[in-house]
Amino acid sequence: MPTIDHLPGRTLVVDGHEYLFCSGTSYLGMARHAAFMDLVQEGMHHYGTNYSSSRHSNLQLAVFEEAEQLLRQQTGAASALTVSSGYLAGQMAVRALAQHGRFEYAPGTHPAAWLAEHPAAMNHPITYDTWSKDLLHRLGSTAPEPVVIVSNSLDPLHVERYDFRWTAHLPTDRPITLLLDDSHGFGVIGQEGAGIITEIEVPRSVRLVVVSSLGKAYGIPGGVVLSDADFLTQLQRSGFFGASSPVVPAYLYAFTRAQELYAQARQQLQANIAQFAEAIGPLGLFDFAPGFPVFYTAVNALSSYLEKHKVLISSFAYPTPADPCITRIVLSSLHTSADVARVAELVRSFALGTK
């Protein structure tokens, strides 16, 4: 495991050797995007390096409402609320729902949306489709009671875009809340990167809550909750919101002014995904999903092979050191067409050599 003194972008340098970097979650490359970093610095001239106060303070900064209004417009959500991390967004939302009904967890749900450590449903190795069909059956065959359903918007580890057509068939005879963690999809999937909220359909009686990190595709150290105005008013009155620091204002300043940069990066990312998928698809080595920049393989030896050829990909035990190794190639908008072709050719050489 290399230790470096700089943040990787398209490449990184280890012991004087340059590697192509195909890991991480900075899908739109904003963490190393020169124009975006200029906007952050510009924001710091306006708002300083941090805002160490509460959003309940008697001094209000305009940039919070500006960013939240933009998020509402982009996603079509009735209301948006930013907080200092995606994990906080998930915990704040799920704890506010603690008394709203029995919790049902989809397999693989991120810990940010757990109400308690290791929900029971996490221990059952079933597919997402099996779980969703079983859930609808159980809801339809038991007495009506309030339910909170919690799920990721997709599986970023083994790479699966979940089929959410089942949500349109949720029962309407009881209070139901559907909470989705869209941290890996927000900025990448959905209409113009607006995320799962633009693709989901639920009955009018079902409350939809979407939580997400802003730190992945958007490059903002923060999180967001999207839902109806009543629920977000409830969150604003909570200790989680009032007692926690907000997003650093300089980053929200950059976010509101970087929409063209995001659009350009998203276009490049989609071109990279399409190029790589076409090149490696016939090899049968990866699980991948249309429009998502992660390619999973069960063949962990690919990582050391690529490293020998100066390409560093994601390959480590997750979520704890005791868990199995997960090996993935992650593309970003920083990669060039030549980069993508190089990795694809190396993968092809590896696949042919192992047959």
From TrEMBL:
Gene3D superfamilies: Aspartate Aminotransferase, domain 1, Type I PLP-dependent aspartate aminotransferase-like (Major domain)
InterPro entries for the chain: Aminotransferase_I/II_large, AON_synthase_class-II, PyrdxlP-dep_Trfase, PyrdxlP-dep_Trfase_major, PyrdxlP-dep_Trfase_small
Residue ranges of every copy of the Aminotransferase class I/classII large domain listed in the record: 174-345
GO MF annotation terms: 8-amino-7-oxononanoate synthase activity; pyridoxal phosphate binding
Protein keywords: Pyridoxal phosphate, Transferase
Pfam entry (one): Aminotran_1_2
Protein name per Swiss-Prot or TrEMBL: Aminotransferase class I/classII large domain-containing protein
Organism this protein belongs to: Hymenobacter crusticola
Biological classification of the source: Bacteria, Pseudomonadati, Bacteroidota, Cytophagia, Cytophagales
